[in-house]
Amino acid sequence: MGRRVSDPLFVATSRIAPAAPPGMRGGWRGRLRRAFFATPMTGAVTVLLATLLAVCAWKLFAWGVIDAVFTTQGRGPDACRFEGAGACWAVVGDKLRLILFGIYPYAHQWRAALAIGVLVAMYALSTRPAWWNLRLAVACLVGLAAFGVLMRGGVLGLVVVPEDQWGGLPVTLILATLGLAAGFPIAIGLALLRSSPHPGVGKALAVAYIEIVRSVPLLAVLFLASVMVPLFLPPGMDLSKLLRVLIAFALFTAAYLAEVIRGGLQVVPRGQREAAAALGLSPRTVALQIVLPQALTAVMPALVNVFIAFFKATSIVVIVGIFDLMTAAKRAVADAQWQGFGTEVYLFVGAVYFIFCFAMSRYSARLHARLNKGRR
172-371: which CATH topology? Predict the structure, then answer.
């Protein structure tokens, strides 16, 4: 007669050991095998794509490094025009000042370089949690003031450089910095108004503003700000072209950011609002100190996506005569002596954009993980 299932000895001897989690079976070799060689067809496709990738990578490496020309050695562009020559990075070295600083006066380009350093230092300070207080606001104001003094001059013995002579990377950075910084608080106000459960004039205006701005291209907004706004100003009053573009950029960005923030506001559970109201907290305190921080944390990846998109969108300000980084690169490529080497210049500019965008992406990922730790 066999053992009963309820017999403790039978249960102990017939217990099945738990299997390892799927992600741990075979270690990294097992994960690679399951991901790329799970079936014969998958393995064949993996080998084919890996071969094509290796061939393309080797050709790119040979063109960009092995056969590349990094210096002209006094021969000018002719140093890059011989059979078998690869990338001509010498054009970047020869046109570096034009690419980075545009038509800013050559003798004063050290001021533009220092202004870029001020903005980068300001970005670095804003990533330090110890500075997330009044000190950061003061530091940003001081940094922006220093940027303006360095770029324009007129004080401390610096020669005045009009804004129509600014160009290159400083213009791209200040457009993105001030445009996004000014548009963000406007976006928060628009999102709170549109998410309000109480209908009213403010909510209707917020909805109308967001929908109208998001229905027109940025190019049209910039053109309107540059050409049409001066027609509505009182006689004798004028705004610089750069300032008009900054205002237009901030107002346009605010509409897109507002919709992202509104999505975050809808993620916050309604019970938290009700619990805060039951504790006697004012609606303003609930919105600014309880709901809004959680909403911004939830949609931080989407916010950074908008930041990156509009940072790259600064390149279209050339349509209104602003000399940004991309426009400076186009002027460098237009030099008749360096015709045919535009690829290297655009790759360099693309690397500059990539550095800033990748830094924003990685920092936002770390910040999102840190702020979201409590929710997890």
Answer: MetI-like fold (1.10.3720)
